[in-house]
Amino acid sequence: MKLKERLFTAFFIMILMPVILLTITACTIVSLQINSIQKSYDLEGGTVQIITNPIQILNRLTRGAYNEIKLAVLKTPEKLEDEEFIKKLNNELLNKYSFILVRKDDKFIFVGNEEKLDKIKESLQEFGKNNTDVDGGTYIGGKHPVLIKAQDFYFSDGDEGTIFVITDLNTLVPQLKTLVFQSAVSFIIILCFTAVILTLWIYRSVLRPLNRLRKGMNKIKEGDLDYSVVSDTDDEIGQLCEDFEQMRIRLKDLINSRLAYEEEIRELISNISHDLKTPLTAIKGYAEGLIDGVADTEQKQEKYLKTIMTKANDISILVDELSFYARIDCNTIPYSFKEINLNEYFNDCIEELNFDFEIKNIELVFENETEPDTSVVADAEQLKRVINNIIGNSIKYLDKDKKRGCIRIHLKDMGSFVQVEIVDNGIGIHEADLPFIFDRFYRADASRNSRKGGSGLGLAIAKKIIEDHSGRIWAESEIGKGTTVFFTLKKYEKDRTGTDN
Ligand code: ADP
Fold first, then answer.
1. What string of H, E and C letters represents the secondary structure of 172-236?
2. pLDDT at residue number 250
């Protein structure tokens, strides 16, 4: 649920839930109290009116005593002069928040509650003005509300008399008190209950993921990028957590690649300095030999000088390859892609290589399985660099134990592309080294002091060039048997309309 919907729901729950619960509780409390009031005060009818009109209840409270008075007025008025009878009635009424007043002419000859008399004296009607027929009595409001029931009669000596039954309306019946109390308590409980439920709900859906998010942010601040923030909701906060998680993963990747890059640079610098130091040390050693006169014969001097020359060449090749690799890695070498006829191109290459191969007594075989007019899209100069690097390795890593080295160039038509295979019968590469030979500075022989020389960049350069031609390069090898380096080139195709593609 979205946060907006959640807030709307929370708003409705906040309003509806207390209303529903209060209605149910109020109905239960009222019906229980009505029953109780009915039983206690012998009231008829089971309506809420009993509660909404408590005067009716208080009126009924005194009904018994008042009926007795009415009966006495009609049949035995002398009873009303009997103090015992009046006291008895008054005692009964005291429990019901009422008392009796007996007035003879203007004097009160019996006062059930002296304190109250002063407050209501003014409100009492004169003889003959009292409504003696109605059971309901007269309601007197104000600061001291009372319900007055009165019966006029004549004393045996002919004096005018009135007997009042006064009910104090300031006092609620206990059930009404309980009702008010229970309602107030229920109201508070219901409000607390609703508030707790809503708070828990909001906490679960809003605060918990927010806390997790905050924790995640603190972790990142401390440099811990492994703490993942997962939210189980699909609302705005859930989306925020998801965005945060993606940001964390991206940041982690960036930092990791940055660390890897820094490590690579460190390794690169260490490799370069090592590869430069080895021939430089040799040059220094041989030059010192020459200066110190260690090379005392002409032959020796020539040998020393030739070695210095070779090592200086090694440095020069390394520096050239390094600068070329740096440029190609930054994509600053502009390619000039052209249509190249494969047959012609490889025949030219082989012609160039043949002289060198004859001197080194290496057999060079060219097998072309493609159609003679097959062309590829390539940069001729860079493609030659790839072929030279691969063949250069085949020559470098020839097996001395074999009678004669043999290098085979094989072209295969693979449909939309051509596969070039350069096979040698050299020393081969260990299976463990094979996946890494295209990495820069990787040398399968592990020792950087290899006498074979080489920068460890040849195949990395070849890979970059082939990939820039949208091709693929890989190798297969078996120790003692030889190595095959494969690469693919996209065919140049003319579309049916005759336009070049
Ligand atoms: P290098 O300048 O050292 O030859 P390369 O990138 O050209 O660097 O080759 C990486 C490593 O792969 C070499 O050091 C060598 O151990 C191995 N390798 C490449 N080609 C061959 C091959 N034809 N036969 C045996 N090992 C090879």
1. CCHHHHHHHHHHHHHHHHHHHHHHHHHHHHHHHHHHHHHHHHHHHHHHHHHCCCCCCCCCCCCCH
2. 94
